[in-house]
Amino acid sequence: MTLTQQKKLKTVLIGSLAWIIALVLFFPIFWMFLTSFKTEAQAIAFPPELFFKPTLENFAIVQERSDYLYHAMNSVVISFGATIIALIIAIPAAYSMAFFPGKRTKDILLWMLSTKMLPSVGVLVPIYLLGRDYGLLDTRTGLIIIFTLMNLPIIVWMLFSYFKDLPKEILEAARMDGATPWTEVTKVVMPLSVGGIISTGLLSIILCWNEAFWSINLTATNAAPLTAMIASYSSPEGLFWAKLSAASTLACAPIIIFGWFCQKQLVQGLTFGAVK
Amino acid sequence: MKNFAKAALVIGTSCAATMLTTDAIADTVLTVATVNNGQMIQMQKLTPEFEKANPGIKIKWVTLPETQLRQNLTQDIANKSGLYDIMTIGMYNTPIWAKRGWLSPINTSGKYDVKDLIPSIRQGLSYKDKLYGAPFYGESSMVMYRKDLVEKAGMKITDRDKWTHIEKVAKAINDPKKGIYGICLRGKAGWGANTALVTTIVNAFGGRWFDMKWHPQIDSPEWKKAVTFYVNMLRKYGPPGATSDNFNQDLALFEQGKCGIWVDATIAASFVSNPKESKVADKVAFAQAPYEVTKKGSNWLWSWALAIPVTSKHQADAQKFVRWATSKGYIKLVAKHYGWASVPTGTRESTYANPNFQKAAIFAKAEFTAIKSANPEDSTLKPVPYKGIQFVSIPEFQSIGTITGQMISTALAGKMSVDQALENAQKIAERQMRAAGYY
User: Fold this and answer.
1) What is the rounded distance in angstroms from the CA atom of residue B320 to the CA atom of residue A32?
2) Which UniProt keywords apply (chain B) (predicted)?
3) What are phi and psi of B87, to 5 degrees?
4) Are B307 and B85 in contact (CB under 8 A)?
5) Which of A61, A163, B324, B364 has the smallest CB count inside 10 Å?
6) Is A240 part of the contact surface with chain B (CB cutoff 8 Å)?
7) Of all helices (H) and strands (E), which one includes residue A144?
8) Contact B344, B170 (CB under 8 A)
9) Residue B44 is nearest to which of A65, A128, A233, comparing CB atoms?
């Protein structure tokens, strides 16, 4: 086998492996999408039916029972709100740690990340009581605060990695020209790492959109996002798979479409600084 | 600066005025927490009728999975958050929460006709003779079986058989090669899942959860016999992977024609006899839950009820809604919109006396017999200090029942012997009861 043939074979093998992994990851979403067009009887049929007469009945039921737009609006406000606030806090934090590291900077970063290792249920009661005492239960503000704090360690960590890769000489040159710290951040650091900031923001939006634990535990009717709407379709007694799939499809659709449009920025940001 | 102050004053006054005006004409919003059951969905759809009859009251719904609902409601009520005005709670929680002073008694005066409520259901939802949960729907357990398969196998199921006979029939009709399993039973761990069914089997075999001094009896010979019987039967004649089967999984199997016999909640009868979703609707028959050494406690009793937490700020309006949703008039309203076969069952005697309902629901007689025969105050052969058939009405049971269910599920999976599973559950139960100060 010649070197060219070996290279071709390697490309084909890696390509095939990538396709297989992608298909395995995508299959549950595909199956959910397919089930949403089945009747409840078809949804539980064994062997599963791949070819069937599709119905929109489940979507009609979801539309009739749940105020989809209200839940979707809650998801949008909470996800974007939490992401914007988290970025406002994280950008200066990451800037100071990347360009003015102290003795304990690495420890602080690790400590911040370690809070993500704590199981959420472990702090449910204190958070719930704080929410109750400050009137934040079942409010968008309450969830925005929780989601901001929840994603802050990852956002700071990611931004720190992007900022760290920026050449310090550029900042020094800016300082020579009389730039204040504010100008440094807004006019030099942010424009140079815009890809990284966007991808961090996108990741944060996706994490907020998909979060279910706090959404279900801290909301009732007013601030319930789409994840809470999906949960309402699980039934203790009675078949519900098709309706649940329809609700899930509707809940996933906006974020999948959003991710599709932003995939270029997402990939660009996530691979930023990976190859030097 | 002056202009800014003026503008701020104008805007502020307008906002305040708007808020005051809004408050003055605002409706009372009642938040109802519930589960996603067919009957609950009907109630949501019929809510506009209530709102029309009661101008000024609006209803908002929070629907959650059963376990999550229990967690959210306990959190809300124990911490006095007041997020919910009306809660859908079960027969297990109602007396416990009423005892703690967390619930307001239901106003049963006047046209409500409290005596029409099925006595066992009413008792189960009462504390010190006061009703704290208005039953919206009730159920017992019974046998659902494929009469075609039973006849083909030359067997017979009578109105009330012994478990050992049911096992023989399951053996006769079991044909895994054709995808037909003799019997389907709950195997998934949980106090409301496998533990509920196993408790009725234990009761039927003469067992009990606690003796009169609150000492756990999980390692008693009656428990060992009952659980060994359950595990052996399900492993021999049940579907594969039974440890993950609960009501819905068994319902799916039965409706697909894969189960010969299924012992579960009476509500299942309305699903399996519905030709729109069941392939075996015309082949299904019903019988009372099996017994063994005693008929006591061999079929469970459960009810989803509407309760009003003391933290609700709209007590009077919440009472109005609860009375409406659990009234005789509401049942007629459901019948008018969805037909008599779809009305919420297991709550009122008048429903079962209605000829239209009897005609529409082929399972009506069997269901009513099952619910009436279940007695939570006398559910075991030996005396017990507790109330409840498939549960024990003490706060500690939720944990003890779940752990026992997990142990039994492990034994069903073949990872532990029945004796070992029950001994483990006994030790944990003893520790919890001692810690709770029972002895």
Assistant:
1) 41
2) Signal
3) -125, 140
4) no
5) A61
6) yes
7) helix A140-164
8) no
9) A65
